[in-house]
Each structure stands twice: as structure tokens, then as C-alpha cells.
Write a structure and sequence with these properties.
Helix content: 25-40%
Order of helices and strands: EHEHEHEHEHEEEEHHHEE
Mean pLDDT: 87
Structural class: alpha/beta
């Protein structure tokens, strides 16, 4: 199976390095240094993933990430020279699945891309043998078609958000800490994962119409982790 991956960085050398790092016969790389041309590709090509630079001279990566999330749920990896938590949290809060800072390790980039693509295609029903439904109070999760309903309203979740919710539901009644959640959803060892998990939980609660100060579905056990009772 081949995968279509968009790469956008205004520095041609970085875009070329990303392409070289993703040297895989199964990857079709759509490489751009111009935001407007990249946006046109997003609209006309069936993509499996996007790797976006944050700092661009015309339309920045955050704006493009938001635009993608209005219509598409394929994974987005933000490529940024900024290492401060504010920038990372902003990217995750507007729908990015992951981020990697420059200068990056090509092997780490390849590993993150493989992991994101695997999650995305598992989310869309490939290689999955689970076909049952989980119902918890007003929440219904269908593991076969990867749909989520709150009462009669379908909730539009990204693959990461669905995987987080599914893992918490499968461990109903157990407090799951950030490290366990990260390692089981992202399929990577956890290194300073608290912000990443926290931001995705926040977005998930917003989509489930949870009151911020007193969430009813995903509860925080302070200093321990998260729980669905």
C-alpha cells in the first residue's frame, strides 16, 4: 500500500531533508516550499499525512493545520524550530497530532511518521478485528466503524482522540496515567508527554461538551491520571 504525504517547509534544504528521511518506496512525497501551492494540493489530493513547518512567510503552519482540520482527519505533524511549550501546546490544541523540533533526527522522524500512519489506517478500519460497541451512559463508541455518539449526536474525532477515548473506555474504572495513555495510543515510549496528553484530553472534552471545571465523562484524578467511571 502506498501513502501520500505532504511536506511543507519554506526552506528547500529542510524540505529536501524531510523527503530524504522518508525514503520509502511506499511513500509518495508531495513537497512544497509555498503555502498556497500546498493548500491546493491538500484540496485536490487524497492525503494520508501532512508535515507542516510552523514559521512560513505567507500562511503559517498553524493556520494551515486549522484549515485541514475543518475537513480532514489525516495526521498532522508540526515541524518547528520553536521548543517552548506554548508553541507545542498551540499546535496540539488546534488539531496537530504530533510535533518534532529542528534539527531533527531522521530516524525519529521516520518512526513518528510510521506510527501516525499506522494509527490513522487502524482508525479507518484497516487490520482491525474488533467489531463490538461500547456504551457508557450517554456515550456510544463503535470499534468497527470508529464512530462515536453522545446521545444521538455523532462526535467528529481525530484518530488520536478516538484512540484516547477508546483506551479510557476499555479501562473503565481504572485511573490511567499520562505515560500509560501515551505509550498505548502513540505506541512510543513517553518522554515529557504530560502536555501532549493534557491538550488532547482538553480537545476531547470540548467535543464531548464537557464542562471544564466539572467534567462528567473523562474525569481527572489529580496527580494520578484520567478515568472514565
Amino acid at each position: 500500500m502506498s501513502y501520500n504525504i505532504l511536506v511543507l517547509d519554506d526552506e528547500k534544504e529542510i524540505a529536501d531533508l524531510v523527503e530524504l528521511s522518508l525514503n520509502n518506496p511506499d511513500y509518495n512525497i508531495y513537497k512544497f516550499t509555498d503555502s498556497k501551492k500546498a493548500i491546493e494540493c491538500i484540496k485536490t489530493t487524497k492525503l494520508d499525512m501532512a508535515i507542516l513547518d510552523v514559521m512560513l512567510p505567507d500562511i503559517d503552519g498553524f493556520t494551515i493545520c486549522q484549515m485541514i482540520r475543518e475537513k480532514y482527519n489525516f495526521p498532522i505533524l508540526m515541524l518547528t524550530a520553536k521548543v517552548d511549550d506554548v508553541s507545542k501546546i498551540k499546535g496540539l490544541s488546534i488539531g496537530a497530532d504530533d510535533y518534532i523540533t529542528k534539527p531533527f533526527n531522521p530516524l525519529e522522524l521516520m518512526a513518528r511518521v510510521k506510527s501516525a500512519l499506522r494509527r490513522f489506517h487502524e482508525y479507518n478500519g484497516e487490520n482491525s478485528e474488533e467489531n463490538d460497541v461500547i456504551e457508557i451512559n450517554s456515550l456510544t463508541i463503535n470499534r468497527k466503524n470508529h464512530k462515536c455518539y453522545l446521545l444521538d449526536e455523532e462526535i467528529d474525532l481525530t484518530p488520536i482522540e478516538f484512540s484516547i477515548l477508546l483506551y479510557l473506555c476499555k479501562n473503565r474504572g481504572k485511573v490511567v496515567n499520562s505515560e500509560e495513555l501515551f505509550e498505548n495510543v502513540w505506541k512510543e515510549k513517553s518522554y515529557d508527554c504530560n502536555n501532549t496528553v493534557m491538550v488532547h484530553i482538553k480537545r476531547l472534552r470540548e467535543k464531548l461538551h464537557e464542562p471544564p471545571k466539572n467534567p462528567k465523562i473523562i474525569k481527572t484524578v489529580w496527580g494520578v491520571g484520567y478515568e472514565i467511571e
